[in-house]
Amino acid sequence: MISVVILGAGNVATHLFKVFNKTENITVRQWFNRNLKPIDQYKNSVSITDKLEALKDADVYILAVSDDAIAGISSQLPFENRLIVHTSGCVNIHDMDKKNRRGVLYPLQTFSKAATIDFSNVPICIETLDKKDYHLLKHLAVSIGSPTKRINTNQRKVLHLAAVFVNNFTNQLYRIGHEITESEGAEFDLLKPLIIETAKKVQTMSPYMAQTGPAKRNDQKTIKNHLSLLENNHHKDIYNLLTQAIQRTHGRKKL
Amino acid sequence: MISVVILGAGNVATHLFKVFNKTENITVRQWFNRNLKPIDQYKNSVSITDKLEALKDADVYILAVSDDAIAGISSQLPFENRLIVHTSGCVNIHDMDKKNRRGVLYPLQTFSKAATIDFSNVPICIETLDKKDYHLLKHLAVSIGSPTKRINTNQRKVLHLAAVFVNNFTNQLYRIGHEITESEGAEFDLLKPLIIETAKKVQTMSPYMAQTGPAKRNDQKTIKNHLSLLENNHHKDIYNLLTQAIQRTHGRKKL
Ligand SMILES: NC(=O)c1ccc[n+]([C@@H]2O[C@H](COP(=O)([O-])OP(=O)(O)OC[C@H]3O[C@@H](n4cnc5c(N)ncnc54)[C@H](OP(=O)(O)O)[C@@H]3O)[C@@H](O)[C@H]2O)c1
Ligand SMILES: NC(=O)c1ccc[n+]([C@@H]2O[C@H](COP(=O)([O-])OP(=O)(O)OC[C@H]3O[C@@H](n4cnc5c(N)ncnc54)[C@H](OP(=O)(O)O)[C@@H]3O)[C@@H](O)[C@H]2O)c1
């Protein structure tokens, strides 16, 4: 049995609470938030508190709070030598107070409170200073059905950066697709199956092998047509830059 | 019963042949390609030919050939007043010889010969000069289980352009994610569930509503960290441009 205290009541904390709470070999001993309002509804299934001094004993304390709050809370903890972990992709492990044993449980997925999460689709990247702590965290992650990977600080940072490219930037390309189509009264809905297929393709094929289209073929006539269709200069810049990137990757002549 | 002649033997032609061939109310009367080699293996299930003069009578002729070949083949056809359609997202309907009735069946999906295709995930965009022809093409597309949409030339062109953003450019962002992670010995595999989730999110939520991340939050510290992690200047340019695009979309201060 692994006992856990959760700190924070945002997207990540809430999903962790829910999955831990239904996992046989995990007990959520306590749930802390600086204000009780968001966790009050769970008080019948877990002990809740808004006082760090009232924190109970547990195998691991999960600081699922805003990046900027991690260091501060870690130094306010009224105990020593216990295992504390944060869940951030970019906060340094050494930013947490060294009076406790430290680790990171970085869930490489996008969380929002409203959406349900299947933890088998949430790779959990684990970083610890002490190897013994790694085994406990791995056991915790495996218990909720997540794939796990031991990583170092640099690897966590590049994964967080790569996540911005494949999630936030990709979503912005969807947004541009939305703008372009709706400007002519065409439907963004028509693009949805293609969006899914594009994401599925790289599950089994490298993005290098999966590339197609006018940039890769160096089809200058289509590229010119597309640029003349684009009315927004910012969209033109993105078209040019990504076309060049594809051509560089695939050894075509530089634009 | 709708009778069809397919011209071309590439990705699109091959998938169309397979789905038509197993659809009850569609007969593939003949399959033409300028060389018989790729279609020879199908000669027991369909009449094949490499001679335009030998083309049989059919309700519709589908020119699923390279964009540049569409106009030429359309004028070499040895008949008049029949319905011919191409499958391209960007070739003008008027580029086909006007001796025949003309239309477009643009399948808004990515095809490769190796991958299997479920036509219920292939929206078929239909353009015709004559309304009567539209009904036949719609009937054809519905018979193979595809969603259909009647569109005009401009709408087809912007859909093709938007497809480049959500497919080719998105795939290049996946590629950059691959490069960044592997450069530190982290695994691209860890990003795959996030890639799927990002694509799934916009199936039910607009890309505008789905946006998250440091650019949207205007989290300058993280943005600076990311830029200093990026060693490749081309990747930096893309990071900057897409960060600005997100901030413009979401009304943040311009960088
Ligand atoms: N969301 C994601 O997709 C995702 C994915 C992977 C990792 N992460 C990481 O997980 C952590 C939490 O993210 P989240 O999305 O769950 O955040 P969130 O929804 O914004 O919630 C943040 C939580 O932190 C608390 N908090 C903020 N400042 C605090 C302070 N000074 N003292 C005490 N508590 C404070 C907030 O308390 P109140 O309830 O009182 O406001 C809130 O409960 C972050 O490190 C983030 O980088 C997030
Ligand atoms: N692939 C996609 O994802 C996709 C998606 C939507 C629309 N489309 C459109 O569908 C059409 C076909 O694309 P595809 O990907 O199937 O192409 P493809 O795989 O490259 O095949 C092209 C076919 O056209 C034939 N061809 C080329 N030049 C010709 C010529 N001068 N005369 C006669 N035949 C010629 C080729 O004959 P050989 O076999 O002799 O080389 C080949 O069978 C294009 O208009 C494309 O824009 C493609």
Structure notes:
Two copies of one chain form a homodimer. The first copy, chain A, has helices at residues 11-21, 70-76, 131-143, 153-183, 192-204, 207-210, 214-217, 220-229, 233-249; strands at residues 2-7, 26-32, 48-49, 60-63, 83-86, 101-107, 124-128, 148-150. Chain A is built from nine helices and eight strands. Chain A has an eight-stranded mixed sheet, with helices on both faces. Chain A starts with a strand and ends in a 6-residue tail after the last helix. The first copy, chain A, is elongated. The first copy, chain A, is an alpha/beta fold and 255 residues long. In chain A, strand 1, helix 1 (11-21) and strand 2 form a beta-alpha-beta unit. The first copy, chain A, folds into two domains: 2-151, NAD(P)-binding Rossmann-like Domain (Rossmann fold); 156-249, ProC-like, C-terminal domain (N-(1-d-carboxylethyl)-l-norvaline Dehydrogenase, domain 2), CATH 1.10.1040.20. The structure holds NADP nicotinamide-adenine-dinucleotide phosphate (2 copies). Chains A, B: InterPro entries: 6-PGluconate_DH-like_C_sf, DUF2520, NAD(P)-bd_dom_sf, P5C_Rdtase_cat_N, TM1727-like_C_sf. Chains A, B: Residues 122-245 form the DUF2520 domain.
